[in-house]
Amino acid sequence: MTPTSPTGPTDVLAPYFLGAFGENNDLLEEVLVELVRDHVYWRRNFHPDDAPPISTAAQFDSGYQQRVAGMKRELHRLAAQLKRSVPTFHPRYIGHMTSDLLLPGLIAQLVTTLYNPNNIVEEVAPVTLALEHEVGQQLCRMVGYRTDGGALPCGAGHLTSGGTLANDEALFLARAVKLAPLAVRDACEATGVWLEPALRDSDDFDLLGWSTERCLALVHRALRTPGVSEAFAAARVEARGLVEFAYSHPVAGQTVVVAPASAHYSWAKAMRLLGLGDNQLLMVPTCEGRMDVDALEATLSRLAVNRTPVLAVVGVYGTTEFGSFDELHRIAALRRSDRAFWFHVDAAWGGYLPSVFRESDGSLRAHEHVSADFKHFPSERVYRSTAALAEADSITVDPHKLGYVPYGAGAFLCRDRRAFELAMQQAAYVFTSDADDEARFRNAGRFSLEGSRPGAAAAAVALNHRVLPLDHAHYGQLLSRSVQACEALYDLVPMLGQRLDGLAQVAVPFEPDCNVLGLAFNPRGNRSLAAANAFTRRLFESLAVQPAKEAGGEAAFFGSCTTVPLAHLGRPERARVSEALGVDLATPDAPGIFMLRHTLMNPWLLCSPDGSAQSWVDAYVAHLERLVRQLAS
Ligand SMILES: *Cc1c(COP(=O)(O)O)cnc(C)c1O
What we know:
- The strands form 3 sheets. This protein has a 7-stranded mixed β-sheet with strand order 1-9-8-7-6-2-3, sandwiched between helices.
- It has 633 residues and is α/β, with parallel strands linked by helices.
- It is globular and about 80 Å long.
- Helix content is 43%, strand content 10%.
- Bound molecules: pyridoxal-5'-phosphate.
- Pyridoxal-5'-phosphate (PLP) binds at residues 162-164, 167, 264, 266, 316, 319-320, 346, 348-349, 398, 410.
- Residues 162-164, 167, 264, 266, 316, 319-320, 346, 348-349, 398, 410 line the site of pyridoxal-5'-phosphate.
C-alpha cells in the first residue's frame, strides 16, 4: 500500500500543529486567550469579597507604568533574541530529535503553568497528579504492560524531567531490587524469622541471580512481616551505603551492568551517580548499530563462570544515533531462572513507536497489518522487539521526543509496580490493605527520584494522549508519517548515487529501523577515510546551524552529524561500508566515519513545498545533489 500522503484539507493531523507558517495561529490565539481569561475568572471567583492587593488606581501611577515599560522592554528583547532560535518546526529542519509540537500538549502546558501545580503531593497538585497517573497507565499499556491492580505483575509509570532521569531511576530500582534478597537474609538472620528456606541455603552469588519476580515477592513479604521489615530497612544497601554493604557482601560490590556500545551516555552518568563507576559498565560490541546479542550471550556466560553478578542488562529501542533497535526478544530470552538480571529498555527515542503496533483495544497488531502502511518497516527484528517490550522489567520513554510535547517530559515505566515500594521515602513499613496499595501508587511524588515536578508537563502529555490515543489510528498516524518520510529519503539514496556518478559516492552505513538516517559521502576516486570524512564535514557545514548568524535565513535545510567509531562496526559491516563508500577500511586513516544524520520527525515532509509532485524529501535530495556538485567540482 502507498503511504497516506499528507496533502490537502483532508489531512487528519493538520489541526494539531501550529504549522510551519503558523497556519493555525487563529486557533492557538483563540484558545489561549479563552483559557487565560478563564483562568482570570477563576482567580476572581475565589473569595470575590476580598479587597484586591494590587489597587486599580496604582496602575495609573507613573512609577508603576515605568516599571511596566521596563518589564516590556526586557520581554521584547527576549522575543528578539529568540529569533535566533533554530527553526525546528519547519520541514527544512531534519537535524536533531525535535520538531513542531502537538498543539493540545503545548496549550495544556502553557495554560496549566498559570495554575503552577507541583506534582510532588496531592495537596498542591490534586488535578495534575491524577493526570500523571493516567499517562503512566497509558504508556504502560502501549508497551504491553498490564495495569489492572488485581493481577500480578501490575505495571505503573510516572513522568521524569527526561530520559536521563528515567535511566537513573531504572538503575536505582534495579539495584534496590537485585540486592534486596541479601538484605532480607540479613534481616532473617537478625530476627531469627526465616521467610524462605532458600535464603538460608543460598550464597550471595545465588541470591543475586534471583529473578525480579522472586525478589519482589520476597520484598513484599519482608515489608509486611513485623520485625523483619524493620531489620530489612536497616540492612538495605540504601541504608548502609554501598561501601559498607559490599564489605559484608563482597560479591555484591562486583555487580556489573551490561549495555550495548551504542547506548546513550546517560548510562555512564547513572553508574557514577550510584557509585558503581565506569569499570562496572560493560559495553557489548554492536553490529549494524545494534547490540551483538551473540556477544552479549558470551559476556553473560563468562561473567557466570567468574561468578560476577549482573545487576542489569540494558537494551535500546531506538538508539540516539540512528534509531536502531536492539533485538529485545533475544535479550529477554537470555534470562535464566537461576541467573536472572534486571532487564531495562532504553526507549527514550523509540518509546512512542509501539503506538503504531497497537489496536484501539490495546492488542498487538499483526505484522502484516503494520507493514501495509510502509515499504520496509517494520523489519522482523523491529516487530519482535516491540512485542518483547512487555517482558522488560522497566522502560524509559521520552514524551519530549516522539511524543511531540515541550521539554522536559520523560517517563519511567515499571512492569511490576511493587518495585516502587523500595523507592518510597516515608516507607510505611507496616502496610495495611490492598486499597492503601492502590492509593500509594497513584502519587508518583512519593517514589520519584525528583522532588518538585511540573504538573504542567503531566497536563501536556495527558492532553496529547486524550486527543490522539496511543494506537495506530491516532498517535500511530503521526509516528507512521515520520517513518514513511525516512523511507522516502532512504529510497532516494540510490538515485542520488547514480546522479552523482563520477563525482562522489554516497552510502547509508546503517539501514534505518525507524525514522533516523545516516549518510556518508566520498569524492570519487578517493580511498582515504580521513578525506571522505573531511568532504562530508564540509557538506554538513552547509546544513549546520550557524550560532552567530540569524538562523532560518540562509541555510536551505538543517541536518545534524555524528561520527561512528570503526570499533562499533563488525568485520562484515566494515567490508560492506568500505565497498559502498569506496574507502579503504582495512588500513583506515581515521578512527571513525563522519556522517550526516537526519531525524525525520516533521509531519509535513511528504508534502510538497511548491504544489508540484515533489515532496520536501525530494527537495532535500535535490539540494544535497547541488551541494555535492559544488563541493566536488
Ligand atoms: C535522548 C535519549 C536519552 C536521554 O534522554 P534526555 O531526555 O535527553 O535526558 C537516553 N537514551 C536514549 C536512547 C535517548 O535517545
